[in-house]
Each structure stands twice: as structure tokens, then as C-alpha cells.
Amino acid sequence: MKFVAAATVAALAVAVSAQKTLEYEIKKGIPGLRMGRPLPPLVGKRFGKRDTLTSMIVNNITGGGYYIDVEVGTPGQPMTMILDTGSSDAWILDVEADLCHSKTLQEKHGDYCSPTYDSSKSSTYKLAVEDGFRIQYLDSSEATGDYITDDFKIANMTIKDLQMGLADKVAMGTGVLGIGFPENVAATDKYPNIIDQLAEQGVINSRAYSLYLNDRRSATGNILFGGIDTNKFMGELSVLPIQRYGLKYSHFVVSMSDLTLTYNGQEESALQAVVNSTGVRGASAILDSGTTLSYLPDKASTILVEALNAYTDYAKTGLTFIDCGLLSSDMKLTFVFNHTTSIVVPVQEMVLDMLDGLDEYFPPDLPFDDVCLFGIQSTNSFGDDMGATSLLGDTFLRSAYVVYDLDHKQIGMAQANWNSTETQILELSSDSDSLPAATGVQDGQATTTATDTVKPSRTAGGGSSTTDAGKETVTVTSTPVMNAARAISTAGVDVLGVMVLAGVFSIFGGGVLFML
Ligand SMILES: *[C@@H]1O[C@H](CO)[C@@H](O)[C@H](O)[C@H]1NC(C)=O
Ligand SMILES: *[C@@H]1O[C@H](CO)[C@@H](O)[C@H](O)[C@H]1NC(C)=O
Ligand SMILES: *[C@@H]1O[C@H](CO)[C@@H](O)[C@H](O)[C@H]1NC(C)=O
Ligand SMILES: *[C@@H]1O[C@H](CO)[C@@H](O)[C@H](O)[C@H]1NC(C)=O
Ligand SMILES: *[C@@H]1O[C@H](CO)[C@@H](O)[C@H](O)[C@H]1NC(C)=O
Q1: Which tens digit of pLDDT belongs to each residue from 416-428?
Q2: How many angstroms separate the CA atoms of 512 and 482, rounded?
Q3: Which end of the chain has fewer beta carbons closer than 10 Å to its terminal beta carbon, N or C?
Q4: Is the CB–ligand 4 distance for residue 158 below 6 Å?
């Protein structure tokens, strides 16, 4: 019987196994102190590309991203950090950070501060590079400060002397735990990031981790450093090579060969035209837990928008809306990475319910009354051309169990087994020359078989869903500003790197809509 209530799931917060793995809870929502913050009034307002309103709306609807609680320093100071596979530096907020002390800046950036760090209260604090930390966001906002080292506690494990940014000038009120390739850190002198340190300090054997975001109705998921939990996915784990992006391995990029929409027994390809237009190179996708929505090349998203009778508001928000009626649809999207690897995402997973009271922000001529946000948007909304590359954020990642293996430069992927409460850990080793073969729980209760039910039920043991009638309301408050894209290094960035990164990523997705 695998169906267990959410409260029980949350109780499993921390589990450190005897093996060299480290499992830790991740929380869904918007961290920090930003409860109950009202959206700004829409008087005479036109949504500009840099408008924070769009990201506020996205966050209001999606409930934000995924973050974890950690402690920094001795004694430990509690800290909240956004978990981000799309960047590589850890950075925290300095107690003196400008945003945290200025109402004007909070208004401007639409964000408040989550807990900050005071170096004078930590006996293990060391300054590493004075003024050396500078992460620039593509809308030209940035976070700057020193690089420091201090002890960093995650789950029960303390990493000694982790290098991280200590930001005193910031545009967002929550730090980021970047868990990407260390080659991609924003420093002039590269340094071992948290993934390197976990391996170097013997916590894990292999620079790899698995991310389980879980059902969007669930408040928590988890991250497993150094292992694979075979109870969290269904069928065989596929292994895909990570591709270089530009010259180096900087992001978790895999090739993607198609995306199909299945309805009434018919199948429509949304990505073929894009794939065909790329010649031999094919299309690709970046897996980014730090982005809330997913973004497809315009041609592909347009096909979906038309097929699903969605609507893109070019005039104001730049967002694509969809009829909430599709929350009870049995249509499904299949993201095909490879002839052996595809992930099914029910269309209803891409229908994000709007909260009441947002009506004034939406265009009057929508072809439906019950307005939801579409979980897929066009990469054109970045104001930049990402070519045949898609950015797959949380709306996709929830349906997948993904193993990020930095040592072997491989991605392991399988259909997620939602609300799994059991654990079966397979430890990873860097000695092998590949991710191991891994088999999850039996397929069959998956969405793939749920074509004639209203809601997908993935719980084994017949866990019938208690939620009725499809529509659920997201109850997370407020509005972090994510008016910015993924961090890029200002020090020593090659032009190609910048080009490659242009258009990529806001922490919570919405931000990308108004950069540049
Ligand atoms: C981790 O901490 C929790 C709570 O303090 C404790 O119950 C548990 O035994 C610890 N686990 C390990 C492996 O130290
Ligand atoms: C998973 O749990 C959440 C509650 O935390 C529930 O709303 C949801 O329906 C469950 N999902 C499945 C597939 O059973
Ligand atoms: C396709 O999948 C197979 C098996 O999972 C893998 O060996 C192969 O490298 C993959 N090819 C690409 C281009 O991803
Ligand atoms: C893409 O190419 C394939 C193989 O050449 C072809 O069958 C298909 O019709 C093309 N699709 C589109 C949308 O151009
Ligand atoms: C979302 O926005 C609405 C309208 O301003 C507001 O009433 C509501 O409290 C917000 N909800 C959350 C969860 O932020």
C-alpha cells in the first residue's frame, strides 16, 4: 500500500542512509517572508518586458519553485535556498543586503528577504575573495558581494568550508543553491562547488544526484545526492548523454526528438517541424529545476496553442492562457528524447489554475471564461532566439524522475512514481563508466493508462484521489521577483557562453518574460 497522506510524506523530511548517499526534503512554494503581499494595482499600466508583474502573476498561480532549508556557519544560521540545476554557485544573503533594508528596493523588485547570514556570528567564517562574487542576470540586475567560505549543513551533513557568494547587493530576496556543473561557476578562479565538495568530503561517492519534485499537489519532493531511489519511478531508467552547450558542459542539455499531443486516439507532432529544420543537429532540451514553467521553440508551442485552443496575450503579459476545462481532459503530451526514452505529461498537468481576483490582469478577449495559465510557453517570450532548444522547467520535471550525473555526463530519466513513500536506494559510484541499469516500480498505474479517467492516479494500491473535479487552487502567496535570468559570470565569460545563455532562465520562470 503506497498511498500515504501528505502529512506522512512531510514527516520523512530527513533521512541519511548508511550508504554514501544523502537524501533531503525539498519544499514547493515561495520561500521567505513574503506572505500575503498584494499584487500592485493595474492602473494605467502596460506590462513591459521588464515588468515584475508578469513574474508575480506566474508565481501567484504556480505557487513558486522548489527550495530547501540549510544552515550556514557555526553555530548554524538557518537559511532558505532555491534549488537550481540551471546554475552552479551557492549564494546567500548578507545581513546587510540592500534589498532587506529598503522599502523602495522591495517595491521595485517585488520581493522581500528570506533569512540572512551574519558573518560576525560565525566562528568558521572566512573571507575568500573580497568583492569577488558577481552574478549578473540578463535583465542587467545582479547579485554582488564577497566570496566566502563557511560550514554548510544540509540534512545532518556538514560540508566544511564551502565556497559561496555572500551577496550584499541583490534583486531577489532568497539565495540560490546552484547544483550544476562546477565548470559553470561565476568566479574568475574556478572552485569546487557543493557537488564537488560532497564528493571530496566523502559524503557521496559520485558527483550525481536524483531529483524528485513529485506531484504538484504535494508540498514536498526530495533530492538524493549520490544515489537513485528506485521506488520513485516506474519502469527502466533511461540513460541519455548530456550534450555540450557551446564548448563545454555547462547545462543539463539532452537531445529531444519529438513532442506529441495525443487526443481522441490521434497523435499530433509539435516538434517535428523544428527537428526537421535543424538538419543533423536535432533539437535539444535543458533540464532546469529553477524554472517554473516550460518553454518550447515558438513553432512547437504554436502548434500546441492551436490544438488546445489556448491564447497568447501578446499585448500585455506575454503569457499563454488556457481553458481550465482542460483540467478534466484526458489528452496527454509525450516528450520524446530518444527512441527508448519518453516522458508522458498529462495535459491537465499543464493547466495551472488561476486564483480568483486576478481577472483584471488578463485580456478581455480570451476565448474562454475560466482562465488558467498554460504550463508551456514559447521561448520567444525570452525576447531572444533559443533556436531548437527547449527549456524544461517544473511543469515538465514533476512528471519525471531525473538523475543528474556530472561524473559520467549522463542524465537518467524515467516516469515519476508520484507520492511514493517507500525508499529503495541504489548507491552510485564514479568507478563504473556509466550510470547503472535501474528498474523502478512496475509501470501500469501510470498516467499512460489513465486515458479515460479524469485525474491521473499514479498511486499503487488503488489510492483514489480525494480531490474532486479537477480544479485545485494553489495556495502559496505572493511574488518573488525573478526579473532575471540565470546567472552568468561577468568574469571571463566567452562570447559564445553569453550567446548560449541569452534567453535562458529565470529562477521562477516568469522573469524571463521581460528581460532584454
Ligand atoms: C539526523 O538528525 C535527526 C534529527 O536530529 C536524527 O533523528 C537522525 O538520527 C540524524 N541522522 C543521522 C544519520 O545522524
Ligand atoms: C499526491 O498527494 C497529494 C496530497 O499531498 C494529492 O493531492 C494528490 O492527489 C496525490 N497524487 C496522486 C497521484 O495520488
Ligand atoms: C538513446 O538511448 C539509448 C538507450 O537509452 C542510449 O544508449 C543512447 O545514447 C541514446 N542516444 C541519444 C542520442 O540520446
Ligand atoms: C519531418 O521529417 C520527416 C522525415 O523526413 C517527415 O516524415 C515529416 O513529415 C516531417 N515533418 C514535418 C512537420 O515537417
Ligand atoms: C494571488 O493574487 C490574488 C489577487 O491579488 C490575491 O488575492 C491572493 O492572495 C494571491 N494569492 C497568493 C497565494 O499569492
Answers
A1: 999 998 999 999 9
A2: 8
A3: N
A4: no
